[in-house]
Amino acid sequence: MLHTPPSSVQSCAALLLAALMLLGRPVWAADAKPGGVPANGALRGLVIGVNAYKAAAPLRGAVADAQDLSAALRSAGAHDVVLLADREATRVVALEALAGVTGRARAGDLVVIAFAGLASLGPQHGRVPRSTGLETAYVLAGYDPADERGRDEKLIDTEFSHVVHQIEAKGARALLVLDACGETSAVREADPRGNPLVMRGLPPTQTPDRLAPVSDDDDARATPGPFARSTVMLACDEGSSAPEVTPPGGEGWRGALSYAVARSFEGHGDLNQDGVISGDEFVGYVRQVAYQLSAQRQIVLTFEPSGTAQADGFAEASSRAIVAVPKGSSTAGAPGTGNANPPTGPLAAAKQPPSIATLRMASTGDASLLPNLSSSAVLIKTVSLRENPELIWDPVTGDVLAGSDVIASRLSAERLRGAVERTVAVRKLKQLSVAAPESVRVLPNDKLHYRGSLLSVRIDAGTRTSVVVFNIAGDGTVQLLFPRSRDPRRAPMPFELPKIEALPPFGADTVVVVASEEPLSGLEQAIASLDNRQRPIQAAELVERLMPAASRLGLVSLFTAP
User: CB neighbours of 21 closer than 8 A, spacing ≥ 6?
Assistant: First the structure.
């Protein structure tokens, strides 16, 4: 649970995390027309996804990412979408596909190029020196560093830059989404008892290849960006990683970056519900959703346009439309009773009438020790540790794990119900948040924090100054954090919670933020009625029912240990 030291002083200082330091420029600044197609051109796409590798452990969600994004582009009005999956994605075929989509591009087009798979740092090609002497290679299905021919099965970052330059030379724009990391750093170590993290990266290699890249020195200078009109989104920065995740409300595996980009093209990135998605909305949406879905292990790195191109009729103001929301989804499925257009696709379940939630649970020991925790709200499905359980209980220590993190400690079998309901509630809240996420970050960082550490949560909700903040502890206890009795009902933005001290019981505390321009007195009173009670599912249901339609929802977890 969360503990606020008596001497804590609430600070509203503008402490801007590096992860939030966006350039404020548009992804695409051209006006859009209905169906998501840019007003002066077409929406095109080339999407590559590789799960099955010749000489590397397979991924689980890259092909699903490619299929999902391809479908999202078509739903947004694209008719020219090329999908390459697994063995289809050879270097020769991929280069031909890149040349093809570039050749078909016309002035005013938006060309989406996406890769989901593995990446690795390797020997540099070309004459422009890099400080590390390495460059990022996005490896294809036949990649094999032990085989002379197999070493060539990859696409180099400068080659993607070359394609973007060619697209811009034709008066078009590109969105380059590279859902793989050549260099990663663990934000928090994974607990070995939990679900193993599958990262989208390979160790660096110094083994030379035979490639003569299609790129040139100018491409190397601009890698990975910024470009004049185009945007680059990389799965992680140097301080984070890109684990495959299970999307909220679903099974299977995905890349958080690809999942967020696909949801934005479906219209869920239209955060102000004006029927179009601006560059700031797109970038902010994707970064926050990926951050939340990865349990805060992933910070998407974004390079936005560096300049204007007025001669081509493009403007740079970030408030301009980049793409129209698909017809019938103008509100993007924002949570709340005021939503006249309910969401479709992967988010549809968030707005369905209440039903029994199913939770996959496993034990590190004798599964027969797990009590019967099913209830009118939750159906427990006992699975093995190999079947991607959402919750794992260690009967020896009493630790409860979600994914690869300990969320509660020293829980006996009789006290597990709170952790079960907490997991269901957080899953529900994440699913709702994907429709309209609020910008929330943990300070000073997302690492595992030990006894006595001081933490905070930073909220940057803009004009949405009516805020309700509550915590769901690892054992399911709900705590109202803001506003308390003497707190103002409007919070100046950016806003920091009072300092929180890491004290027992340790595990994960999930801080939930609801922000709106409208008063939230009804939600505040309802959450206050649950204060210090184990009612996490009821809290999630109240958020869904009482949030105004234009509200946003964000959540982050604070991980603590003795």
Answer: none
3-state helix, strand, coil in the chain (%, to 5): 25, 25, 50
Nearest of 171, 157, 283, 177 to residue 229 by alpha carbon = 171
DSSP state of 327: T
Q: What is the DSSP letter of 267?
A: I
Backbone angles phi, psi at 427, to 5 degrees: -60, -45
| Dist. CA 65–CA 68, nearest whole Å | 5
Looking at residue 194, the DSSP 8-state letter turns out to be S
Contact (Cβ atoms closer than 8 angstroms) between residue 241 and residue 298: yes
Q: Which residues of 109-130 are buried (b: 16+ CB within 10 A; e: fewer)?
A: bbbbbbbbbbbbbbbbbbebee
Mapping DSSP onto H, E and C, the string for 221-267 reads HCCCCCCCCCEEEECCCCCCCCEEECCCCCCCCEEHHHHHHHHHHHH
Q: Letter for the amino acid at 92? A: V
Please choose, from the candidates 313, 475, 458, the residue with its C-alpha nearest in 3D space to the C-alpha of residue 407.
475
Token pair, residue 366, equals 């004798």
How many whole angstroms separate alpha carbon 36 and alpha carbon 317?
19
On whether the CB atoms of residues 325 and 267 are closer than 8 A, the answer is yes
- Please give the model's pTM, rounded to 2 decimal places: 0.86
CA torsion, points 59, 62, 64, 68, in degrees to nearest 10?
A: 170
Q: Take residue 297 and report the two structure tokens written for it.
A: 């292990």
The rounded radius of gyration (Å) of the Cα atoms in the chain is 23
Contacts of range 335-341, beta carbons closer than 8 Å, 24 or more positions apart = 335/432, 335/435, 335/436, 335/543, 335/544, 335/547, 335/549, 335/551, 335/553, 336/544, 336/546, 336/547, 336/548, 336/549, 336/550, 336/551, 337/545, 337/546, 337/547, 337/549, 338/548, 338/549, 338/550, 339/549
> What residues contact 81, with CB distance under 8 A and at least 6 apart?
44, 45, 46, 47, 70, 73, 74
Check: CB of residue 40 under 8 Å from CB of residue 232. Answer: no
Rounded mean pLDDT, 531-556: 95
Residue type (1 letter), 176: L
The full length of the chain comes to 562
158 vs 125: CA distance, rounded Å: 9
Q: What average pLDDT does the segment 443-472 reach?
A: 95
Identify the CA nearest to 102 among candidates 48, 179, 44.
44
What DSSP line would sit under 382-434, residue for residue?
A: E--TTS--SEEE-TTT--EEETTEEEE-S--GGGHHHHHHHHHHHHHHHHHHH
Looking at residue 437, the DSSP 8-state letter turns out to be B
Rounded to whole angstroms, the Cα distance separating 25 from 390 reads: 38
Element (H, E) at 278: strand 276-278
* Contact indicator for 330, 273 with CB cutoff of 8 Å: yes
Give the whole-angstrom CA distance, residue 289 versus residue 431: 10
Q: Residue 546: enclosing H or E segment and its boundaries? A: helix 536-546
Condensed to tens digits (0 to 9), the pLDDT of residues 281-333 reads 899 999 999 999 999 999 999 988 874 332 222 223 333 345 555 544 433 34
